[in-house]
Amino acid sequence: MCEKINPSRLCFINKKVYFCTEFLIMHMKKIFILAWLILVWGNVSAQHGHEPDKSGEHTEKQEEGFDTGKLVAHHLSDSHDYLFELPFIHKTIHLPVILWTDKGLSVFSSKAFQGDNEGRVVVTDDKGNKFVRIHEVIYYADKVGGHDHPSVFDFDSRPLDFSITRNVVAIFFVFVLLFVVLYYTVKGYNNPKKLPKGLASFLEPIIIFIRDDVAIPNIGKDKYEKYMPYLLTVFFFILFSNLIGLIPFAPFGHNITGNILVTFVLATFTFIITTLSGNKHYWKHILAPDVPKALWPIMVPIEILGMFTKPFALMVRLFANILAGHTIIISLVALIFIFGSLAVSPVSAFFVIFMSFIELMVAFIQAYIFTILSALFIGLAVEEHEEHAHETSH
Amino acid sequence: MGSLAGIGAGLAAIGAGIGIGKIGASATEAMARQPEFAGKIQTAMLIAAALVEGVALFAVVVAMIK
Fold first, then answer.
1. Which of A9, A65, A179, A233 lies 20 to 30 A from B52 at CA?
2. Looking at residues A32-49, what average pLDDT do you find?
3. Which residues of B touch A367 (CB under 8 A)?
4. What would the pLDDT profile of B20-32 be if each residue is shown by its tens digit?
5. Where are the domains of chain A?
6. How many helices (H) and strands (E) does chain A have?
7. Distance (Å) of CA A351 to CA A50, A115, A321
8. Which residues in chain A are closer than 8 Å to B61, comparing Cβ atoms?
9. DSSP code string of A168-212
């Protein structure tokens, strides 16, 4: 073991480093709490940056009270502008809007909407289409006539929206993060004779865990290898997306998995992989189950419906857990604005710290649950059948 | 109505609370009876809790859509 260092024998700079690290280690707990409080302050002051334009709308009426619903919707829903906000930097990046209309592809910067979300600004592109934007959804201007709130599901009045929105930028950021982290993980295995170095030794227990406790028990020892890339990808993607949603300052702080369209895509991937790898026994269980034929009119529709409800449950479970967590944290910070006094901030900060710990646990658990349920569904699809006599013994 | 959605979400929270409470109770009891399996029991408890919470959050999502 290393001998205890005698500080008086170190040269000047090393002495400073020694005392700094000693200070850090001895006061670790206080430093940790201070760092959390700074994070919460960063969260609150980033929120405060939004207040000027919001309070302008509210001073029309007398004492309307703080609209938490609007704040939550503004922070958690997708947006065509990328707001880069740190405590002293407020920058809006206008992302490109890419629309597929009846007259063809239409690309322009979202600056054309001039920050309008109520449908007042009409944007005309070079093909003659006119668009308005209401609550971050783009409609054709002439189809939005009488009523002021067209439904998002009214697909005739909307072009196909392929814009690069804030969630798309965030997902690209998760890609870059995943690639960097996993690239350095792979590099740790350069020397096959030694233990993995660096990041690989940190992630290896997690990857081994997914292989030994998620993939092999559910899919089987001989078939799991084909599906390991998908399971690992989905686990790390959901984990990183959840963690990014918890860190309040830019470039993190995006609500990726709290968007139902993102989780819809993830659940669709699981559905496609499960359906495409279903073998004869899987389809036999669905379309010709082992029950008396009189029950088939009931059983077969239920089984087919069950094929869709399992990924649907995956989608809603992840979406609602993450969205609820983010909503709670934003609402707890908004408590300060609801009461309107700074004295609420210690209480609010304490609750935010507490809820953040819970949300950290939920981030890991939800990624794990999505992965293990996907492995379970894939296992159900590829499982080989034992003898039928085995079933009657249940 | 906003308050009806709030009542619905509250009822879902009651359901989640009861369900996860029962899971926790039986998990700790099983861990007390067989301490060597505590790890596996804890894993199973977390999975079951996440599934029950998923069901409760279905109701929250419906309440959010109103």
1. A233
2. 61
3. none
4. 999 999 999 999 9
5. 96-163, 168-388
6. 12, 8
7. 22, 33, 18
8. 316, 319-320
9. HHHHHHHHHHHHHHHHHHHHTTS-TTSPPPTHHHHHHHHHHHIII
What would the two tokens of residue B19 be? 């369900």
pLDDT at residue A60 above 50?
Answer: no
The structure tokens listed for A57 are 């709308």
- The three-state secondary structure class of A7 is helix
Rounded Cα distance, A182 and A205, in Å: 14
Does A316 contact B60 at a Cβ distance shorter than 8 Å? no
**Residue linked to tokens 């999502």:** B61
Is the pTM for the entire model greater than 0.90? no
Report the chain A residue with the minimal C-alpha distance to residue B46.
A365
A317 inside 8 A of chain B by CB: yes
What structural domains and CATH numbers belong to chain B? Answer: 2-65 (1.20.20.10)
Please list every residue in chain A whose beta carbon sits closer than 8 Å to the beta carbon of residue B46. Answer: 365, 368
Nearest-CA residue of chain B relative to A314?
Answer: B54
Specify whether the CB–CB gap between A44 and A345 falls below 8 A.
yes
